[in-house]
Amino acid sequence: MTQTRLLWLGAWLVMAAFVGGGAIYVANSVVEDPAPIVVTSAPAELISVSVSLAVDSPPERTVDPYRGYGTWVDVFDFDPAYNTPTVVPSDLVEMADLGVRTVFLQAARLDDRTPEGLVDPWLLTEMVLAAHREGVDVVGWYLPRFERGDNDRLIALAEFEVLGHRFDGVAVDIEWIGPDRAGNPITDEDRSLRLTSMSNSVDVATGQLPLGAIVPPPVQTEVINTSFWPGFPWTRIADVYDVWLPMSYWSFRSDSSGYGEGYTYHEESTRRLRENVGDPEALVHGIGGIGGLDGVDDPPDPPEPLASLAEIERFVVALDDTASIGGSIYDWNTLEPLVRERLAELFPR
């Protein structure tokens, strides 16, 4: 039996142990300390099998998962609690074949459909093992709403581990400008204070783990819509995050703005971001999109504006011109087939 099949067998044996009264747990409270997924014990007849299949020790986590070509999967793509899945673990084979080095996976939520903090742990296990089987890294990400429970979810992502496999990185999606869950508004300054406090706390709790910051592109906050989070606390969080991932979604920008063609939005946002954090060599992984149309049977009226293949090619040029360490298009589900193939050609393996 191949090592891959043994790994899958071991994972399912551990799952079976849980169903029979075994050993993997997640905290029950929505807001109180969601615990990491850890294998703590197993029935005697399974112990030797599980140990023999486990990775000797998880590899050291670095910024490498942010390098090169990545893709994005959110809960509405893969979790049945939110939608009929359009991305399943077996899709990792195609991603790997097309040169994807890292999958950015939304692995935690703060809502009633994810009451335990992390997305369904069995599903996360399948996704992580499927990715690692194909040599693909997985960065778990979470959208905080700057209220109680955020820290716990990010720490749980950092500590999630099954059979020696864990997320290769953790990234924070910093874009929430709405009210808290009780409907109370949050001022811009209070939001900045909460973000700073959360970031510092998670940084201390996760130790040497490199953290990614998924951020609004500075062009959006400083040029296009200055009322979107005025006073964003770049300098206050600059020392916390190791990689910056600006969301340069040019498909939402008009051609007349000068930012709707794939190149300029990322290039200018990267320059501004590095100025804002005071580091001309800050590591950047650009996120473009949304999606990608290949010109073959394109949907006549997509629910959101989608990028063209020509624009995506310009975006990749911008990644190179800004010395970005990697790039991706949000998201995998909205990339049409020829665009996926072209991206495999544009990014060196």
> How much helical structure, as a percent, in the residues?
25-40%
Major beta-sheet overview: 8 strands, parallel
Distance, first to last CA: 29 Å
* Number of DSSP-assigned strands: 10
The radius of gyration over CA amounts to 20 Å
Order of helices and strands: HHEHHEHEHEEEHEHHEHEHEH
* Helical segment count: 12
Q: Which class best fits the helix and strand makeup?
A: alpha/beta
Low-confidence stretches: 1-9, 11-53
User: Do you know the CATH architecture?
Assistant: Alpha-Beta Barrel
Here the CATH topology equals TIM Barrel
Strand content: 5-15%
Structural overview:
The protein has one domain: Glycosidases (TIM Barrel, Alpha-Beta Barrel), CATH 3.20.20.80. It contains 12 helices and 10 strands. It has helices spanning 3-19, 44-53, 75-78, 91-97, 121-133, 150-159, 188-206, 218-224, 234-237, 264-277, 309-321, 337-346, and strands at residues 68-73, 102-106, 137-142, 161-162, 165-166, 169-173, 211-215, 243-246, 285-289, 326-330. The strands form 2 sheets. An 8-stranded parallel β-sheet has the order 8-7-6-3-2-1-10-9. The longest helix has 19 residues, at 188-206. The chain is globular, with a radius of gyration of 20 Å. Residues 1-9 and 11-53 have low confidence and may be disordered.
